[in-house]
Write a structure and sequence with these properties.
Largest sheet of chain B: 2 strands, antiparallel
Number of helices of chain B: 13
CATH superfamily of the domain at 34-370 in chain A: Cytochrome Bc1 Complex, Chain C
Helix content of chain A: 55-70%
Strand order of the largest sheet of chain B: 1-2
Radius of gyration of chain A: 30 Å
Mean pLDDT of chain A: 90
Low-confidence stretches of chain A: 542-567
Distance between the termini of chain A: 16 Å
Number of helices of chain A: 20
CATH class of the largest domain in chain B: Mainly Alpha
Strand order of the largest sheet of chain A: 1-4
Shape of chain A: globular
CATH architecture of the domain at 34-370 in chain A: Up-down Bundle
CATH topology of the domain at 34-370 in chain A: Cytochrome Bc1 Complex, Chain C
Number of strands of chain B: 2
Oligomer: heterotrimer
Strand content of chain A: 5-15%
CATH architecture of the largest domain in chain B: Orthogonal Bundle
Strand content of chain B: under 5%
Low-confidence stretches of chain B: 1-9, 13-41
Helix content of chain B: 40-55%
Largest sheet of chain A: 2 strands, antiparallel
CATH superfamily of the largest domain in chain B: Cytochrome c-like domain
Radius of gyration of chain B: 23 Å
CATH class of the domain at 34-370 in chain A: Mainly Alpha
Shape of chain B: elongated
Distance between the termini of chain B: 58 Å
Order of helices and strands of chain B: HHHHHHHHHHEEHHH
Chains: A mainly alpha (580), B mainly alpha (261), C alpha+beta (358)
Amino acid sequence: MSTTTDHPVEQIGGATAKYVDQRLGSNKFLGANLGKVFPDHWSFMLGEIALYSFIVVLLTGTFLTLFYNPSMVEVVYNGSYVPLKGVQMSEAYASSLDISFEVRGGLLIRQMHHWSALIFVAAMAVHMFRVFFTGAFRKPREFNWLVGVGLTALALGAGFTGYSLPDDLLSGTGLQIIRGILQSIPLIGTWAAFLVFGGEFPGTEIIPRLYAAHILLIPGIILALITVHLMMVWTQKHTQFPGPGRTNTNVVGYPLLPVYMAKAGGFFFIVFGIIALIGGLVTVNPIWLFGPYTPDQVSSGTQPDWYIGWLDGALRLMPNWESVIAGFTISWNVLIPSVVIPGILFTGLALYPFLEAWATGDKREHNLLERPRNAPVRTGIGVAAIVFYGILWIGGGNDVIAAAFNLSFNVLSWTLRISLIILPPIAFLVTKRICLGLQRKDREKLLHGYESGRVLRLPHGEFIEVHQPLNYKELAVISAKEDLPVLPASVKTDADGVRNPSYRVDQLRHKLSSFFLRDNIERPTDAEIEAGQAHAAHSAGLEAPLHEYEELDQDPVGHGGVLHHPGMPMTNQEQVDQRQ
Amino acid sequence: MKFITARRRNPFVAVLLLVAALGAVGVTFSAVSNIEPAQASLGTQTQVEDGKKLYLEGCSSCHGLDAQGAMNGPSLIGVGAAAVHFQVSTGRMPLAAPGAQATAKEPIYDVEEVAAMSAYIASLAPGPAIPTSEDLDYSDADIAEGGVLFRINCAQCHQAAGQGGALTQGKYAPNLMQATPQEIYEAMVSGPQSMPVFSNETLPIKDKQAVTAYIMALQEAPSPGGLSLGRIGPVTEGLFMWVAVFAAFIGAAVWIGIKAR
Amino acid sequence: MNEITPSSGGNSEPGINGHSPAPAQLGYSPVAEIPHRLRVTDTDPKAARRAERQVAAMFTLSMVFVMLSVIAYVVIDKYAVLYIPVLGEVGASNVVLGLTFGLAVFLIGAGAIQWAKKLMPDVEVVQERHDMVSEKEDDNLAAANYERGKEESGFARYKMIRRSLIGAMALLPIPIIVVLRDLWITPPGENPTEILSTTLWTKGIRIVSDGTFMPVRPEDLPVGGLVSALPEGILEVQEEEHNLNARGKAAIILVRMDPEQIRSQQGEGWDYNGILAYSKICTHVGCPIALYEQRTHHLLCPCHQSTFDLADSGAVIFGPAARNMPQLPISVDEEGYLIATQDFAVPVGPSFWERDKA
């Protein structure tokens, strides 16, 4: 402990630090957390992209609210954009045009807002893939996965409400489709549509209502959920990939202050900067080209933004089923693609962690990420879902694709319809096979080292291929595999002839667990690995696995004429000691 | 064109515009130079005879010896000179290869030959004539009014910014960014291929001029927001975001993640 | 949250320069045993100096770009156009503001990262985790507090209070939902089904072309022709109602084909000499349709590619729409202008629950 003062923080931060601490007790928090360790991996920054683009959305959106007028009152445009001069349009559209043309920097901010919204949803999706494929949603992080699913759904809502606000031909057509979807809901649909639109479509209420949702309700909830999301990450500490020194009960990385703070903070500015550059250099949503919305006009190639594209694709690919039951109309052709499919997809997403844990009987806490290959069924399901989504997504642009590549969208649509049914299972099987193949290879490496490609002739004439032992990094990564047993089959009646009341459930669970785990290639035991590596080292004619330091054994590099010896391998410990 | 002229008053911009004009990717304004329609609606007798000769050589195998139509081509009686001029001068006819629809290409016949053929077809039965330069003069037309009419009558197939779009079975509405006023006019009155006819009674010449003025404004319009991404909306925007922007982000993330040497 | 663990690394020496107070425990320790290579900047002071200059240069450049961006804001005319290779003719203000501001922001980020990578320690450290589950004593405390609360409030004992409270809470959301009823202030005597089933079209109302609002004569429309049309007086209705609702339902397209090519219609003689009037609003989810191919008589929806055959009662021949496009029966009045002879026989636009009750 220091001998100079009783209040070290005061010494550093001056009177203010003490003042604040006396009121908030903040030094306790700082003491515990300024040194908090965060693991470093590029894929852990995907969530940061989402967070930062959301911050950009908030900043730019606030600017836009200063100029945007959410009103459907018809006015005559009198701004500087000649091709629309004198045209009747809503105040919402006119003010959006004014932001684009009359407010200096307005177009930049509008484009930054739109780009960052597109990026926000995309980053969430990719972040979710990372979390899914590495099993980061497993205990204890299931709640955070749920929050993430909620955030994704809200992001779609935030995006769509924003897409509708300029009240141009494209956004109005989107709302027209929403009206059609609402009307397809059985029993309450017609009234729901009238309540949402304040009467008939398009009415004069929908834009102000969407505005309230877009700038207050949805971002408010998103902000609250992001806070919860981050607090959970903070409390539970970030997961990490397997590697040297990394266990399920530690976290290896850089302390918050200074490295992580500099990197995360720096990345915010990088994301912000890239969005500003894109906003300045690349057009997004040129609303002036689409014209004002009227319900009897349309443009060819009418599309939603990318994140709604899959729903539009589902609407396009759906067969035209409709039935009248007892005099009431049920539009399966609208209901299934726009309500049922997204419902199933989001429910499936939300329930997946619980389902997998139940099926595999896995109750352990997981802080070490699982390599996708070590969970072949999960990886297969994920890839199949992405393929399913991807086909719907392509369907959402089938007319543009057809026009761009001189195809017939009729043929394309049929191809996609068939693909939608057959490709996801194929993707599942192929992915699973690949994963299992990689598992086998990993097992080989653990048992025999890796094939060096060098062939030796032994004194007695036998040819062998020299195997090299794995280096410490590979060994740590590959040997981190965990195996789970298949849950036992259940019996209908036990030995005493007593019926098992939960037989069906147990049996289902047994089958599911078998589906998840039966093909697993078992990891060798520690003894086997040790023997295998030693044997490989011997085979390579080396007493010690020298190539462990292979990548460190580079020639000294001259810098500015001064010869020195960089890259001397030291342990972390030695290096820390040296610094002090 | 007040919007555009207002911006061009700036000397700084004028210089840049000059560069633009010289530049390879500059927006060309070739429309005016093309308004030299062959006055073939009432062609001379020689023109008709020349046209007939050309017709028999180049067109009759599909459209029949008397232009009455056959298995492979529709009747041309009554389609008018405008239709012939549009189809042949844009290279759509003669058909290069059977397909979903005839595509525009380098024309095979020169201006006089097209005029002769037009005269011949026009002599068979009355039909929409080739527009006069007066018909095509859109200098007084109201661009904004043209925009309204464009969105009512054209945007559904040719897309709001005139970029074209898909029709059924591989057919398509072409991109209008290279279309000349004469082609636009002739297409409207003759209804080539899938396109419906917009007669001078339902869409008066004055309105056609307004539509033309709007299309011309689209052709020469700059892109205030930067790279236009083809002006076709969310599909290319989404693609750009995923491919280019995300590559930049991932690149930055990887850069942050790797250890310095 | 407080997870300071004993440092296993023996890191108890005074801090850098021996100046700052020595933290006995930082809450983490270095990952020992793992070989780690020193960076060039760790061993070569010149390289470190160079890295320092790089970082400072980025921050400085950022300031320069901020200034440039302010200058650009003031100087560049907002309508100015700039030619840039690859981008084409673009708005000067937007591009220059985006570039300068974007670079100003980006360079701060790049500088910070370079700083972290080159000059801050790149030694990985380790911190212990603990299971999320609470300690036994916290568990007991929570349980005890809960029991105390339950006991003191008498929640378990006062059955009547408990049940009535549950009832009250259950009912409370009802008014919140009920007040949403007036999201649509329903005009007296109107209901959605009826509104969706009627349009402005009635017997004798003239058909005017959209945009020009001129009545249409049959002879104006050649075979192969297409007119987007509305009922006469639509503008007055719009003016009066201050909305586009009437337009959204009444919009039609007029097409003319050779009468012999009309294979069927939705009503006997609903055409006029080969002129057919169909709703412009798709029966799928309501996009306006006018992608009419005059050769094939197909009408295509640009939103979801439903295709209708107008020569065959507007039947669906492709895509997700389930219902024919509604046809409007037409005729001519004594002055020779096209008129509707009645309203649509079926509701136009997307289906709805009560549609077939209409």
